[in-house]
Amino acid sequence: MLSLYRFRGATCASKVMLVLAEKGLDYEDRLVPRSYLSDPEYLKLNPAGVVPTLVHDGNVLVESSVIMTYLDEVFPRPALRPDTPLGRARVNAWLKRLDDSLQHLGIATYAIAMRHPILALPAEQREAYYASVQIPERRQLYRNLVEQGLEAPEVGGALQALKALQHEAERSLAADFLVGDYSLADAGLTPFLARMELLGLLLPEAETPRLHQWWQRVQDRPSFDVAVTAAAPENADQIRQLAAAAKDQIARLLAS
User: Which residue in 101, 180, 194, 249 has its CB near the most CB atoms, within 10 A?
Assistant: First the structure.
């Protein structure tokens, strides 16, 4: 039996959901509120207090790229990695690239959208929120993103990194997909691009034509509606509006 713990809008959970959908696997969808991630019961499964967490026949797996690879090994049809060692290495390189880019996507999400509900809190409650972040470096990062938004010193580099990620995908797309046939690499990139589009960070088609063709191709797959559209943040319309309001500032940061 497979059980997947996730919450709405979790990019890394959508990566795993795409693999489950592509393989046609049945699973128990444990959709939980964010607050449950700090519950002692959940922390026994995932001490980091993040999603996704997959439980398979009582065995617990964490980290989305690890889970994706595990599913492709345990349920090998249809295969979502190439047969050759070189092809598998290229897929693994994409999974690592995306893992390394997750913080950049988080910074962009916070600076454009997630800061606003926190910023609306009274100063005393905001300070309590910052104090609840246990890691000092991360506490300062959140403070900067909430208080300064797109002007925070970390944002420019994060947006440039996301721009570079799109250019890297553009260079890789000599065929329909990133590495041969549809693979874990494509499943990994898809929720990233969905979030970047939501945040107004998707580069123009004239700049990345192959990436835009790929983006339409993956949206046309049945797995997209199940794992991305249906799992989008509940406040997706609000996020899109906030991104639209900040589009000039975003454009300047991407162009710099």
Answer: 194
pTM, full prediction? 0.95
Band of pLDDT at residue 91, cut at 50, 70 and 90: very high
| Architecture of domain 2-74 in this structure | 3-Layer(aba) Sandwich (3.40)
In this structure, what are the phi and psi dihedrals at residue 111, rounded to the nearest 5 degrees?
-65, -35
Q: Which amino acid is at 228?
A: V
CATH topology of domain 85-255: Glutathione S-transferase Yfyf (Class Pi); Chain A, domain 2 (1.20.1050)
Which contacts of 234-238 are long-range, i.e. CB under 8 A and separated by 24 or more positions? 234/8, 234/9, 235/113, 236/9, 236/198, 238/113
Cα 158 to Cα 59: distance, rounded to the nearest angstrom = 35
- Write the DSSP assignment of 186-217 as a string of letters: HHHHHHHHHHHHHTT-PPPTTT-HHHHHHHHH
Count the Cβ atoms, other than its own, within 10 Å of residue 121: 13
